[in-house]
């Protein structure tokens, strides 16, 4: 079945249609096509839902909504496209030019929305659900919520989101690297607003390209960022080279480097105050896969070689470089503490720690990070108590002043309460 408007001045008025549903059973596949080409216009301004599917031997057939060579399809009222009834789904495609007129919120399930080169579409919020894909090389005017896949292109390209980008734990961002020029040599996702990131990041090489050590590829640009990807795949570039994700306040780059494991470059102890437990903030020299960094990878010995229990390390920034190790106990005794981390903490390629930088990862002794910290505590002592009078009648006010001195070896911070007994 084909709905076609072909040629300048040709208009197919389907404005009375509010739903397009196509389910069938067939031995083969049957494609449903809605196409505006060569300046033609299809008016589907009141269409709210598209549903497609089938039970054919080849999974039924897809519904193709496509424009080419200046054609226009009006989909300003579309709120849902669901192709979950078929293995092939729904495709909304401007690859060959033309325009899709968008509107408010649009939910996509098992649907591919394909942007043609330099093409744009506007939706208040585009939400990618199960097996939904946004791909191509163009612009979205509005916010995007990705619970499916954003794929800038099967070849190098770029997508610009003029709004906020939220990637859920079920979402994935996929980029391809085949050269050194952004948008033509490698993919980019550009977000003008906030990038709120979770889920996965996938990359890979194309066209036989091999990156050189030290080259950087700015694959993600954003106005601001919170959280970070839960996992990375495809970072192994071969030939002893890996991509290291580097997150800054305005972008994320993939830096090509030798395939070596992470090392700890900093550990700062916080004795805890204001109701927070003592903790250690650890800094790695490259992003760490948090699924490999557990409390079992941390050993803390306190005064008298007492084992001090901790909680699972928590990632505290988008770069996956910083982790906080919090102690189970709200208070710790004064004294000297020994901290050891590793060596089985890995980067996203799977390289275990290389703390001694000798090129051999995961050595049981040499690749363990070790440090010592000395816990000094304040000791608050009441020294001078001065009542306003030596005697006072029952029910009469009595003012008492007192002085508190810190006899401990550390500064008293936070708040405390004085009680009178």
Describe what is shown at a glance.
Helix content is 0%, strand content 49%. It has 421 residues and is mostly beta strands.
List keywords for this structure.
mainly beta; elongated; 10-stranded parallel β-sheet; 13-stranded mixed β-sheet
Descriptive notes:
By secondary structure, the protein is an all-beta fold. Helix content is 0%, strand content 49%. It has no helices and 37 strands. It has strands at residues 2-6, 11-13, 19-24, 32-37, 41-43, 49-54, 63-68, 72-74, 80-85, 90-96, 99-101, 105-109, 111-115, 120-128, 133-136, 139-146, 149-151, 158-162, 165-167, 172-177, 188-197, 200-205, 216-227, 231-233, 236-238, 241-247, 251-258, 264-270, 279-284, 298-302, 306-307, 314-315, 322-326, 335-341, 369-375, 380-387, 400-406. Strands 3, 6, 9, 12, 14, 16, 18, 19, 21, 23, 25, 26 and 27 form a 13-stranded mixed β-sheet that branches. A 10-stranded parallel β-sheet has the order 1-4-7-10-13-15-17-20-22-24, with no helix packed on it. A 4-stranded parallel β-sheet has the order 2-5-8-11, with no helix packed on it. The model has no long low-confidence stretch (mean pLDDT 88).
Helix share of residues?
under 10%
Mean pLDDT: 88
Count the DSSP helices: 0
Strand content: over 45%
Architecture blueprint of SSEs:
Blueprint: E1 2-6, E2 11-13, E3 19-24, E4 32-37, E5 41-43, E6 49-54, E7 63-68, E8 72-74, E9 80-85, E10 90-96, E11 99-101, E12 105-109, E13 111-115, E14 120-128, E15 133-136, E16 139-146, E17 149-151, E18 158-162, E19 165-167, E20 172-177, E21 188-197, E22 200-205, E23 216-227, E24 231-233, E25 236-238, E26 241-247, E27 251-258, E28 264-270, E29 279-284, E30 298-302, E31 306-307, E32 314-315, E33 322-326, E34 335-341, E35 369-375, E36 380-387, E37 400-406
Parallel strand pairs: 1-4, 2-5, 3-6, 4-7, 5-8, 6-9, 7-10, 8-11, 9-12, 10-13, 12-14, 13-15, 14-16, 15-17, 16-18, 16-19, 17-20, 18-21, 19-21, 20-22, 21-23, 22-24
Antiparallel strand pairs: 23-27, 25-26, 26-27, 28-29, 29-33, 30-31, 30-34, 32-33, 34-35, 36-37
